[in-house]
Amino acid sequence: MATVQTDRREFVKYSTLGILGLALGGGIIFSPYTLRAENRLRPPGAVDEKKFLALCIKCGQCLQVCPYHSIKLTDMVKGHGIGTPYIDANERACYACSAVPCVLACPSGALDHHCEKPEDIHMGIAVLEFPDTCLAITNTPVPAGYTDRMSKFNDSVTNLNKLEVDLLEKFSKYEGKQCTLCADMCPIPNPISAIAMVANEGGGNRPEIYDGCIGCGACQEVCPTKVPSIVVKPRVTYKEYYASKN
């Protein structure tokens, strides 16, 4: 079944490339709306989306220096902005490296070099999207097999490094315990400024987001529910999102 699914994805990808080539050869003009990039979680330091797309030269330097293998390049199957870097927090979030190497590696200014430390990062904002499924709120222990699930990403990486091994070791300590993963795994130097567990009306705890959140997606990646209860809204500030809720 896995082979069939892979073959189907490859067929769709290359069929689409062929159709695109024919369309361009035939002089078909795509509308600006069709070519508009999706709202993706970009690497640290990413400038305004339109400017980012104009500046990014799709060199992949940011991907190559990321020690957590967090950064991917968009292909035809994934949508628009082909070749531009993005982060899928469902698979591997940004872990806010102290030197922000992806920014240092960017030669074009698509990643702003004024972003020099984790506190300078502004990728988005975390939101408790599905509180009804949050294990902390329902007082449900982190399920057995959680570490195995998280290890699948490491298993897919050929050049695994110590930082990733250490991260997996941290995950193994939570199985069967009260879930505080989103708060505990926040990678910024002062995580309490971004997220904390607070008492909930039903007797459990709930994650509360503060304006120090940088939108790295670590909370989304480590959330043990099948569909993450907490997610990151890309390119949205704390003020923009939470002010609208008051």
From TrEMBL:
Matching InterPro entries: 4Fe4S_Fe-S-bd, 4Fe4S_Fe_S_CS, PSI_iron-sulfur_center, TAT_signal
Keywords: 4Fe-4S, Iron, Iron-sulfur, Membrane, Metal-binding, Transmembrane, Transmembrane helix
Membrane-spanning parts: 12-33
GO molecular function per UniProt: 4 iron, 4 sulfur cluster binding; metal ion binding
Domain 4Fe-4S ferredoxin-type: 43-76, 83-116, 205-233
Keyword Transmembrane among UniProt keywords: yes
Protein name: 4Fe-4S ferredoxin, iron-sulfur binding
Gene expressing this chain: nosG
